Amino acid sequence: MFQYVLRRLLVAVPMLLGAMSIVFFAMRVLPGDPCVAMMGDQATTEALADCTKNLGLNRPLAIQYVDYLWRSVQFDFGSSLRQGYPVSEYIARMFPHTLLLVMASAIVAALVGIPVGIVSALKRRNPLIDYPLRIFALLGLSMPVFWLGILLLIGFSLHLNLFPLIGGGDLDGVIHMIRTGDLFSNPADFLAAVGDVLHHLALPAFALGFTLAATVSRLSRSAMLEVISQDYIRTARAKGRGEWAVVYKHALRNMMVPLLTIIGLFVAIALTGTVLTETVFTRPGLGKMLVDAIGARDYPLAQGAITVFTMIIITVNLVVDMLYVVVDPRVTYK
Amino acid sequence: MAIVRDATAPELTAAGAFQEAPSRPLGRALRRYAPIGIGVVMALAMIVIAAGAPLIAPLSPSAQFADAVLKGPGAVERHALGTDEFGRDLLSRIIWGARVSLQVGLASVIFGFALGVPLGIVAGVHGGRIETCIMRGADMLMAFPTLLLALIIVTALGGTLPNEILAIGVALTPNFVRLARGLALTIREQDYIMAARALGSGQLRVMARHVFPNALYALVVVATLYIATAIRTEATLSFLGLGIPPPTPSWGNILSEGRQYIKCCPWITTFSGLAIMLAVLAFNLVGDALRDLLDPRLRGE
């Protein structure tokens, strides 16, 4: 087990390196001089040369590359060209917003997707149940999250006036209150702030969660179908266990391995989903930060955001791989 | 929806929900082929609309009608789906937008297929160090979600039609590599491969004449599903302002421009998004149904 973990970690390192190299070289190909982007067209030649030197852009590419890798490992992505803040500070500030959105939509997707998938697998011979569920899954798969988001905004924010049109609520305030202990001295304010955050979160979480639920329901449907056709399920039925016990005691537990794969996939899809969801709902977060950074040609910021996205995805896949061993004792690694 | 009605009518009178659906030949055939039929019709309709856009579109997609700015569907008779902020006919723009979506959808999948499948087959049949190299490369690209990878490439190269095709094609490639390698691994163990080798076929001939044709059907099925992914990715890139720049209409940039007007004129975003969804749905339906036919065990997954 320990050996496996070590080997798996060693495989993840070159993957991360490769992915970061792609980001680095893609950003070098980008048109436009970062210094011109930072200082404008009016900057003098000396000022531009000075800036190039300060950013280290006059050094050989190989040196810049090694430097970038070394700094990225320490979460130092340089400073935003437009705002001047360190990129890592930016990312740290945006991260809770994106994490909250991913978690909330994961809950929506799991609550909707897993039951839908299981029911449609178990009742696949009943067209009254199977067809609506399959149509639901197909619609969810085909509906772009940004379109669903806009439809929700038109319906619930503009016409019914039930939810805010933009923003993410005062999440920073909530975090600050938790940190300083204000939530105990001022519980009413704290609850109001939390309520406001949830109010802002509802539509985006539903939009992203719904599109993810379709993928989750398909994957859990096929996982269930795979499990339900196994011999031990037949044995359980043959020895007279009720349908409920067969499903809950035997099938669900064995579904956990495929379900873990789903979670790994899920984080990757959800993270890309946040790029769109945050843009549509004008919510602060890593995804919106990335889109804005690309639009503003703020390369260090974009580079940092993409690197962090990739790190998260590779880490999650690593953790999922290791969880297999915990969930399923039959899986052994040599 | 004919299919649902036909399949459920007898079931309603049946006593138990667990009963096997009636196996009337007509009902069964309908259940089996209706999704693919609907999908094929929708996909063909899209191809016809895209190819015949100049003939089908009622007006020019770039003509601006000063007397009909931001008019709703049917408010002015000649604009069936309304107009945008420049007084351009939305229906004509959506019809022309089908061209971009379909071109990118098909071309990027062909690109990914042409690049990924040979690599995958070589990896699967040859094995050894070459396989390790190819698969590590594919794994590295797989670490990026399709959209993120396409986004990086298209940002680096700029949003033009060929760049979008390249970006999405490259982003899809690792999927084809993995799939082709998996298929090749199974096929290379078959007796007919041994027979071919015994008859003196070289490595290249085995791959091209025996492994590839036997993997082709499964590859094409999955490629159909990736057309749906490619169309959605194209729309997403355009929506984020990284795709083909306006005034050339694409569904994504129509939707993106319409975002500013959702308060007064929701039809712009509604109809362009609907077009995206129907196109993606069409190829998903065809791909799903083809996969069911390919492997009945996977039915409905």
List the defining traits of the structure above.
heterodimer; A: 334 residues; mainly alpha; 14 helices; 80% helix; globular; B: 301 residues; 11 helices; 0% strand; elongated; disordered N terminus; disordered C terminus
Can you put this structure into words, describing what you see?
- The complex is a heterodimer of chains A (334) and B (301).
- Chain A is an all-alpha fold.
- Helix content of chain A is 80%, strand content 0%.
- Chain A is globular and about 85 Å long.
- By secondary structure, chain B is mostly helical.
- In chain B, helix 4 runs antiparallel to helix 9.
- The two termini of chain B are 20 Å apart.
- Chain B is elongated.
- Helices cover 71% and strands 0% of the residues of chain B.
- At the A-B interface, helix 1, helix 6, helix 7, helix 10 and helix 12 of A face helix 1, helix 5, helix 6, helix 9 and helix 11 of B.
Tally of separate helices of chain A: 14
SSE run of chain B? HHHHHHHHHHH
Shape, principal axes of CA atoms of chain A: globular
Rg of chain A is 24 Å
Percent of residues in helices of chain A: over 70%
The arrangement of helices and strands of chain A along the chain is: HHHHHHHHHHHHHH
**Average of per-residue pLDDT values of chain A:** 80
Measured as a percent range, the helix fraction of chain B is over 70%
Shape call of chain B: elongated
pLDDT < 50 stretches of chain B: 1-22, 297-301
Weakly predicted, low-confidence segments of chain A = none
β-sheet strand percentage of chain A: under 5%
Mean pLDDT of chain B: 82
Separation, N- and C-terminal Cα atoms of chain A:
7 Å
Question: How far do the termini of chain B sit from each other?
Answer: 20 Å
